[in-house]
# Entry
Amino acid sequence: MTAEAAQETGADPLRPALPTTPDERPLRIALLSYKGNPFCGGQGVYVRHLSRELARLGHTVEVIGAQPYPVLDAERGVTLTELPSLDLYRQPDPFRTPRREEYRDWVDALEVSTMWTGGFPEPLTFSLRARRHLAARPGQFDVVHDNQTLGYGLLGLERLGFPLVTTIHHPITVDRQLELDAADGWKRRLSVRRWYGFTRMQKRVARRLPSVVTVSGSSRREIVEDLGVRPDRIHVVHIGADTALFSPDPAVPEIPGRIVTTSSADVPLKGLVYLIEALAKVRAENPEAHLVVVGKRPEEGPVATTMARHGLEDAVEFVKGISDAELVDLVRGAQIACVPSLYEGFSLPAAEAMATGTPLVATTGGAIPEVAGPDGETCLAVPPGDADSLAAALIRLLGDADLGRRLGAAGRERVLRRFTWEQAARGTVERYREAIGAATRTVHR
# Structure
């Protein structure tokens, strides 16, 4: 098809047309996500970009989600079906008690009672609502794709006629252990255990899933070890960056001393405390060094305490709710992008920073080396939880412009070669077709 013909038909001239044989026909996909807003972390980014790329490939995608609702690219034909919860953690009134007239059924009562006992109910209650919703729509989807809900309601969907594929970005048991390790006192540890009580359910469900997609080899190993899923049921499909959006732009001026990082939550997993500690050491060598954190400024807790102890309140800026274009320019204008996490199942911030050509300093926690690449070739790599090593890498890169340019160019090339959303969508579709084929063979036995 020529570009002119594509414009007349509404097709994308940059995308090949899908074959129309029975095994390659466009699919009707239900994408489930109990937490889909892209400003709430990586799961929301995953839903937005994967659904867009699946639609670009010619598939029909309906996202079924709860609050905070996903932000989707509607111009590609991706639709959103809202499956509302009681939204118990919404701002500015988190952990609220609903009014009597808000209750609709027993699932709502379960959601509130779990919150009252200190647990996190959303994965379970969303899965129950999703099952009820899908059961009322027989034959409308070729495959259901669950985005790490791992709730009891998803078990047995195949018997309702819905082949199931589930993405596990990484086991939440890792987050649980890191928070327990950082907890101060038995009361805090008890609170962490109650909150993460849903991980017992997720472990039981994961072991019974027919097809699991994960985003890195590191996550695959963790899923086998922590959740007990059989290795033959787990398939790695790397995710990636929006390389058209996250791209170099020489017109954006570099701000001397600027370091940028993403930390969507003040949790030990993100390692922000160690970056703040490192910044104090960096500023002793380079007083113009400063940090911009994409995330909400904590009013209390380890990060706030560390900033106050080192007198860094004016050297650390937090930005929240910025647009995609503002985020890209923020990363482009930084001398260094930093990922200080203790663990990542993939690390979208690393891939996105590399895609802009911004040199990267990153830890070796979890899958980060799989994304960021070899130390000294595409990034500077340091051990997780080591503020001294982090400071040394930042000081080295701030003082060596040639090294920065070399790392930035190599990082961009690595992302283009290995980590794009189109590649992710094509790999995911392969998993869909395998799941559909397996379900069909089971029915015909």
